[in-house]
Specification:
The chain is an alpha+beta fold. It has 9 helices and 16 strands.
């Protein structure tokens, strides 16, 4: 069985040890996994059929693990007949926060009070009182997220927005605290609590701390409603906490990393993921 592991060039450099681990785990389960850089891929239509080329040659594989936010790539791969992890539905829905909020809200799961805008729009009047949070709809890892306290700050920050964005109320949500739940297929693997006492963003990469978290029955039920509604491979479901300690949906990381999970436990999540891919392909 042959597969591709697709990264952008910059991400492949930053995640070299993870890529090596991924390829090694695949080899242990008799799968040949090849790193393919997104910059080297051309997708399109040739002689009236969809094609994918790398380094000038038409290529194919049994499956692809796409580790970059590129929903159109996922769609094209599937149209060619290549099984994609995660599939195009996951990529299209959850790599855009507005799409994600709408999808999760329809499952009856609480989401933050949020308003969605294309990058070219300057909302007037603003739908929320200060302070509010502004997020790039496609941002990840706490990047392109800011707390805006007054009109002057908003006008300055608005000049930096070129893509779809979200305005979100921080009221009744605990600042600097969130929960990441790692899932594979229909199974909850583990949950990690992240806390940052110096920033309203809880991301571990931004200086927060992390610890394993035991989910209660209600929390498991909420998570199960999400994973029963979609065909996930490996993903991270992120929640914030309301003031009274209830989960409120934040986002889903399609190309989720597992540095904190590996640091906090002996769970080999890539071994589990490769096993799932192998079973799915067979």
């Amino acid at each position: 069985m042959n597969g591709w592991l697709i990264y952008t060039k910059n991400d492949s450099i930053r995640n070299k040890s993870y890529i090596d681990w991924f390829i090694d785990e695949a080899k242990k389960q008799s799968i040949h996994l090849t790193l393919l850089l997104r910059e080297n891929i051309s997708i399109g239509i040739h002689k009236n059929k969809p094609v994918i080329r790398a380094n000038g040659k038409e290529i194919s594989a049994d499956f692809a693990v796409v580790r970059t936010m590129d929903p159109f790539l996922n769609r094209q791969l599937e149209q060619i007949g290549i099984t994609v992890f995660n599939n195009r539905i996951i990529s299209e829905t959850f790599n855009h926060k507005a799409h994600a909020y709408l999808a999760i809200q329809q499952l009856g799961i609480p989401v933050p009070q949020s308003y969605f805008f294309p990058g070219k729009i300057n909302p007037s009047p603003l739908p929320l009182d200060f302070p509010f949070v502004v997020k790039s709809a496609k941002g990840k890892g706490g990047k392109q997220v800011a707390m805006i306290y007054n009109q002057k700050e908003w006008e300055a920050y608005r000049q930096t927005l070129t893509e779809d964005f979200i305005l979100q109320s921080p009221r009744q949500i605990q600042a600097g605290k969130d929960l990441r739940v790692f899932i594979i297929d229909k199974k909850i693997i583990a949950a990690v609590l992240r806390i940052n006492t110096n920033d309203f963003r809880a991301n571990y990469s931004l200086g927060g701390t992390a610890s394993l978290y035991t989910l209660n029955k209600t929390e498991k039920s909420t998570i199960q409603r999400i994973i029963d509604a979609y065909e996930f491979g490996l993903a991270g479901i992120d929640f914030m906490f309301t003031d009274d300690g209830q989960l409120i949906f934040n986002e889903i990381e399609d190309a989720v990393g597992s540095r904190t999970l590996s640091m906090l436990s002996d769970i080999n999540i890539l071994k589990e993921y490769i096993r799932f891919i192998k079973e799915k392909m067979q």
